[in-house]
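Board notes (copied after class):
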Amino acid sequence: MEFDWFALDQTGQLGIFSSAGSGPVPAAVFGAGVVPYNALQEWLSMSRPGGAKLVFKGDGNYRDWQAFASRGLYAFDFHDVHRSSTDKRQGYDLIYRPEQPIMAGDLPENVRTALMVLPVVFGEGNLVSASLLGPE
């Protein structure tokens, strides 16, 4: 079953991670409960769309990731589910990057304080390694 989760990078940029049903999900994601998650979804639905740039070089329909990136999120997918065992990258691939990233300071306080911070800068690479996610 698909599960999307959110995190901040060490500079405060917001990202969404689509697990594709089998991607690793940090245990810390579940610690805050659904209230901040629902508040973030509502806040995002009221934000004004902007531009987004496709980063991923692969076949597929990436409209969902484009929609999130156009709202200011770095949009990642656990694309390993589509790869052979020898081609797996062991992490979340960046699919779309926002032109205007959402920063932690833009978010409602209850959302900002509930999100985990990953030890990475989303715009510096095209993969967030599963080894950086902490316990699952």
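Comment from the instructor: Residues 91 and 131 are 8 Å apart (CA to CA). The longest helix spans residues 34-45.
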